[in-house]
Amino acid sequence: MSAELEEIHEECGIFGVWGDPDASRLTYFGLHALQHRGQEGAGIVSNDHGHLISHRGLGLLTQVFHDESQIERLKGEAAIGHVRYATAGSSSFDNIQPFTFRFHDGDMSLCHNGNLTNCPSLRRKLENEGAIFRSNSDTEVLMHLIRRSPRSTLLDRLCDALNTVHGGFAYLLLTEHEMIGALDPNGFRPLTLGRMKNGAYVLSSETCALDVVGAERVRDIQPGEIVVVDNDGYRIVQYAPHTQLSICSMEFIYFARPDSDIYGVNVHSARKRMGSRLALESAVEADMVIGVPNSSLSAAAGYAEISGLPNEMGLVKNQYVARTFIQPTQELREQGVRMKLSAVRSVVSGKRVVVIDDSIVRGTTSRHIVQLLKEAGAAEVHMRISSPPLKYPCFYGIDISTTKELIAAKKSVEEIREFIGADSLAFLSLDGLVESIGLQGDAPYGGLCVAYFNGDYPTALDDYEADFLASLPSEDCERLAHFAECNSEYVGNEFHSSIVSHHARRALRVDS
Amino acid sequence: MSAELEEIHEECGIFGVWGDPDASRLTYFGLHALQHRGQEGAGIVSNDHGHLISHRGLGLLTQVFHDESQIERLKGEAAIGHVRYATAGSSSFDNIQPFTFRFHDGDMSLCHNGNLTNCPSLRRKLENEGAIFRSNSDTEVLMHLIRRSPRSTLLDRLCDALNTVHGGFAYLLLTEHEMIGALDPNGFRPLTLGRMKNGAYVLSSETCALDVVGAERVRDIQPGEIVVVDNDGYRIVQYAPHTQLSICSMEFIYFARPDSDIYGVNVHSARKRMGSRLALESAVEADMVIGVPNSSLSAAAGYAEISGLPNEMGLVKNQYVARTFIQPTQELREQGVRMKLSAVRSVVSGKRVVVIDDSIVRGTTSRHIVQLLKEAGAAEVHMRISSPPLKYPCFYGIDISTTKELIAAKKSVEEIREFIGADSLAFLSLDGLVESIGLQGDAPYGGLCVAYFNGDYPTALDDYEADFLASLPSEDCERLAHFAECNSEYVGNEFHSSIVSHHARRALRVDS
Amino acid sequence: MSAELEEIHEECGIFGVWGDPDASRLTYFGLHALQHRGQEGAGIVSNDHGHLISHRGLGLLTQVFHDESQIERLKGEAAIGHVRYATAGSSSFDNIQPFTFRFHDGDMSLCHNGNLTNCPSLRRKLENEGAIFRSNSDTEVLMHLIRRSPRSTLLDRLCDALNTVHGGFAYLLLTEHEMIGALDPNGFRPLTLGRMKNGAYVLSSETCALDVVGAERVRDIQPGEIVVVDNDGYRIVQYAPHTQLSICSMEFIYFARPDSDIYGVNVHSARKRMGSRLALESAVEADMVIGVPNSSLSAAAGYAEISGLPNEMGLVKNQYVARTFIQPTQELREQGVRMKLSAVRSVVSGKRVVVIDDSIVRGTTSRHIVQLLKEAGAAEVHMRISSPPLKYPCFYGIDISTTKELIAAKKSVEEIREFIGADSLAFLSLDGLVESIGLQGDAPYGGLCVAYFNGDYPTALDDYEADFLASLPSEDCERLAHFAECNSEYVGNEFHSSIVSHHARRALRVDS
Amino acid sequence: MSAELEEIHEECGIFGVWGDPDASRLTYFGLHALQHRGQEGAGIVSNDHGHLISHRGLGLLTQVFHDESQIERLKGEAAIGHVRYATAGSSSFDNIQPFTFRFHDGDMSLCHNGNLTNCPSLRRKLENEGAIFRSNSDTEVLMHLIRRSPRSTLLDRLCDALNTVHGGFAYLLLTEHEMIGALDPNGFRPLTLGRMKNGAYVLSSETCALDVVGAERVRDIQPGEIVVVDNDGYRIVQYAPHTQLSICSMEFIYFARPDSDIYGVNVHSARKRMGSRLALESAVEADMVIGVPNSSLSAAAGYAEISGLPNEMGLVKNQYVARTFIQPTQELREQGVRMKLSAVRSVVSGKRVVVIDDSIVRGTTSRHIVQLLKEAGAAEVHMRISSPPLKYPCFYGIDISTTKELIAAKKSVEEIREFIGADSLAFLSLDGLVESIGLQGDAPYGGLCVAYFNGDYPTALDDYEADFLASLPSEDCERLAHFAECNSEYVGNEFHSSIVSHHARRALRVDS
After folding, report:
1. Which end of chain C has fewer CB atoms < 10 Å from its terminal CB, N or C?
2. Count of structural domains, chain B
3. What is the CATH number of the domain that holds C35?
4. Which free-text remark accompanies the cofactor (chains A, B, C, D) (predicted)?
């Protein structure tokens, strides 16, 4: 889909095992099932009786681990691993996780999925106190905070540290004696605990990786929880004074694998319901429905069922796209050479087609798809998007950091339609999205974060706030004020915040 | 699908360009679109003013060409390339095509998709005359025959050679002055001519690769045709005295990409019709339809439309499966660790599911799929196969060379059902297959080869015949005699043949 | 020679450039000339207008930089680089330098040749204050100290840090605005400043790398000096209150390249003088002199000249030994298969040979050499070593950290002779060594560190002292007491020290 | 030395083992000792009960075999291998040997060191008979001839083939049942048989590789001999009617490793005698002798001994030069950046130096060396070359194929001296060379080929003759006529030849 093709990415997938002699190999398979969450780099660290052994590298997991000996070297009965998403600027080895730290009292490894909203100021503060940083990653910040906590146990120090960082995060931590997972107080990112038949425990970003290693789901980690796995089993610690579920709705829309369940909701089924709802909200006379492969196939099936239109394969994606180093020249691009997506002339020629896509980011991919279909002879192209218009950036771990790149932040639906050249265009309503996903929580939006659509951020934006406000048109600022107001009573947090969302206020702070 | 997962493979894809300054780069993109036809190895040869430059290697195209400089080295305005399928035994560099030959009168390169039925005896005969062979491939045989022809022009020599080899083949040949394609008299394998906007010509195994490089289809190469492309354009030569279309039906069933058209029939659409017909032939009461990804999704959509059942994603395939070097240990396999396919518990749990797959080869994959779905809680699993039972080997380029490995050669449908553990099992009828594909030819089966299903081979089997007959149960031999009878009048062929199929007799020889 | 073959290694080579548009390429060539100082890993960091870009990897420089694009990516007019020596245990990517640090006030890179004697206690102290470590390397310690200094300028902070660390070190530091080199107060490791024709400045471990990049030597960096290179040229800062030259004598004996000059003394010439002196001290009747290639060829030439014996090539070293991954099996070793060194039968057969080697570490290589020569028919083998017996470990950067592995710590010369099977054995005297090298300083031993031979360490041993003393036989402790005595007046250093050598006391502290 | 630095190369090294379970591993070690004979590519073929398994690749042996599994795959008790020299044009995978051929009656592998003088016409003739060629190599020609021989046994066919090819060659052939070596009738290239302690036999280009695998030399293969090794031991067959030893003198001058013996003469010792003789022939007043590393060190030792001058290390070669992909830009070269050779200022400054080099090819390297030494302050540079001036190309396996590139073909010694900028220049006399090497044969020049120095080719030049004669100045043609005259009675050879050298006539044909 568009988001996939325009390379808007999740920040990473994490996976860990405690208690299996094949821990690093299992971590490899777990990460393999999470490869869609990051293709820039990968790493695994194993725990060989307290000596943590690491192997990391740039590229796909199969490129980083291209030799049996690389797995065999990672001895031990516990391991954690990470796949990292691709961005142009930071494709540096130094940012590939897990990070391993060597202390006189033992090695520690740490990896991370998410984004901290107060990372810049925390880094600045830590640097002023003498801290050094080897990467641009948020991950080192947490380790600094852990080591600087005055408390005595690792768990207490970790609680201190987790209460200092803000934003979206799922952490995995490995030491000689335990594997620890931790989730932010809003649960922006998914994290699940599973158990294998032999009693080993597994932590994973998505349930699809549990299935791959034959583990059963024990429980989803809840907002503000720490899970400690050691030789005595697992235990849950609630470290955050206030929590409220705001799981990223984009996980349902396109990040997560369709066979994953998040808080009990299957991703494929949610997408299919989005497609069905979209058919109800924005019906159009046409000859067929086409899903943009791979992530919009579920929604297309839903649209087809409700509309009664046949569900056709009018667009085909090359299943071998990963990481080619050979690129078309500009001339070849102009000649029409393209590698990822093809329209199927004999399917669409002369037909009125409804194209289902999961999102529109910059609009260029949608325009490309419409053009492909028209060149292949489609009589009409009706674009239907199974989520609302993306208008606001994400600060919790999705790589949309400014509104500038979002076409819906600047253009009306009619203007977008014109830009992409479609005969009609419609988006799923926000209510439609929330109801299609159907989380049963009593938190706002049923427990979803939908800030990219309406600006209602579940937390203060901390270091990002000033720039964000400056980027908004004035009328939007006013509208956001409906959600947000200044709140000086923020608990346990020394950093200033001036935007507090409607539901953040209600849930996290109203009691105060 | 089963065939895909059990690694029954096509023998290769071929692609060539004449007349573009980016010829080798375009060939790369063309091969990239044909990667599904072979993952063992790949190679490209370019024509730099008569000096043919080669780069070949083991693995995926992206692994063989992992560096811009590897494409840049392949200078020239013409190129041909090849992707090769994977088998355990022969993963030798020496077999990777195209092969390049160095003569005092110029370099020549050659590559090949298919299988010759008289290759062993031709090799023996050539060796007795002093020929030397660097590979196990059929490809060198043709070059020997070309060079040994007493005629004077390359085209005449090529005609001689092509009339000597039997079986299924599509060849690409590159010299300083021309690019030549050639197809066997039955057209077992597909080959298409396209033209780019700048006038360059393209030859490709499938039309999907034409789309990728922005070429328009000019014509499908017909059985027994040679196409010569040079600086004056292209011309067609008919070299075979007798021809009759018998295009491999497995191309439609699962080899070809869904966006390819073969003799005017779109592959996706054909598959969808197979699924629809299957729903009519073998309806069953159920809650949902599931396609085995990726190749059975079209058939599943067809089944769902006709049956009125919802089309769900109950099985998910990891899209990053290609070429991992890390494998589960036997212990991990027993613990349920698996990398390719997952069942989606929350979709199938408690449901009666119809699973659409395109074929059953050994039956082990089908059994695995049924087991996955039952473990995920499916109440009933009804397996529906969108092609007839596979009972006979192929000698024209598909890697099924003995009946031993085919479960349907030994077991009844009910026995297969029991083996795979499904609640019911049905296959598409042969008529259903032929009518669903819907080729409009007047050749037997509308121009399809369906020998894997009924033993009606369109040609004599030459060197393979004796072993094949020995492998059959006696009653089957009698039944095949209905198709085949001895024919000593075979034209222009010094090799003995004793099986001549029903339609081979009718079309190729009866007139003689 | 023995040391080379037994893989006793220097800890690294460093090289940097300021002011040339080809800075990273020049650094590559500089490191290439320093490859003999470390083969485990290599890295280069360039300064692209303050953004420091890094490329590091395991293996030889040619393996780490196997592609032009890897150098081209390292843009900028300044760069520093490092080659790292090989040890079995720590061949981890995380230890490969230069290390790069990312601060809000700019990036910094740091690399290091040497060893700190108070590193463990400094790490412990820093960790107790919250510092985190990503490696086992001493290098991170200095960066922590720099960033924790309360002073305001980088230079002041660096001076603080350098006055806190003890031992042997040569550091290179790169920031947006300057390249800085620093040497320990004893100058254990060499460091030289050069200037290129275009005015660019170069810092290098050895002068041989200056020659390779066409730079002229400006000056050797002196003990306790910092050299700051920026766009205004270079300036020297003396940061240490007390200094005394104790350059590592092993640099002359076998580490440094023969074409390097150290404090004005050419290494080849020094070695030749060692050989000449050895001939005077330990003459023997023989037919020829043989040098163990490559590092003992100079000494052999000197021995031959004085003794009047012909200098023959009786031992040949394979010049392609670097980093093979294929090893002989134990069976093959027993059959006599060997890869590095061959004896030349037709040269040595029936002859009385004097073999010149630079050192004996464990004795196993010497025994192997004697055996090779005897098997090749040598009538007598007289081993002559161009340095005194190695009896004590080094704590300043050479990989001999315990006395246990040193045969001369446990055996007399006669016992060693017996062990290696030579007909006679003699070592160069300590006076002979000092006079052969011929440094003109008034420091003890002319400015050399000769502690491996006599235990007279130029500094306190700090964290290594307790284990070292425990490892000594009691009579040796007494003898060392002749050199060392307790000194509580150590200036500006909070760490306890109880061994202070004879000359350390005299020079560094007595005045205080 | 110059030849080494100017990359005038030998064509390859060969090595084989019969009768050891570690055959491929031993072949690896043997080739490792022959790496100096070729760095472009390498390959090994093993005999696994008649199935020949091959691994070949571009680059150094350590690059081609970078993984244990690559050797382990090459199972079997026999193996042959090849290292190939580097040239710009033909660095194609297709030319890397051994070549493996697949026949119905068994696999065969073949590799080759040398050059055939009648290869072009043989290829042409074979092609006219239908032969096909996959490479530019001479090696395929022999296999064609073997397979086309009408005789019945492999040995008879091989004799036929060897009597058809002309020029310099050493072949290794591997089949299921035997390993065969063969040498041309002049023995241009060296080949030796050795035996391991366990009874396995070894064939090697040089004896240095025997030493490395612990094998004892059994005998040098003589001109015109075939050696057949099988499970019954070895036997020698003389296939050539006329033979006369003309071993390449360049093997002694610089190709072979100093620890090798050729026909009983140690290479180092021969070189040392050349240096001694040179000192006698061309003494000069000077302060020191310097050998150009590595290949002229032996000659320098000889010169020093006779002249009484000290032998100094005034030039140092980087021991890690192999195969870097990063090159200095033109600007950097002009700034004096260089990677291979350094002059040692503190050794040569102010001194009169005699530089010993083994040969002058184009003169550019000698000029570079003189310049390096003068820039380093040498007062006088006297160049002494331990071989006569190179004036004529080689057609038997050394990569000097035209006289154009040879400075001595066009300039007098004084003109060369001027070109290279030396203060004096002298070459060893031809008599001096022949006597220094000291082969005891009664063949012309003691059994050496010295054609590069005087044009007296030991055989007809066949296909190369016309171009060679055309390239000569007329007076030279007349002088060569002293050696050569037309001979129409050439035995058993259908190809025309018009130059027959003095000694070729005398020895090979005079009887006719």
Report:
1. C
2. 3
3. 3.60.20.10
4. Binds 1 Mg(2+) ion per subunit.
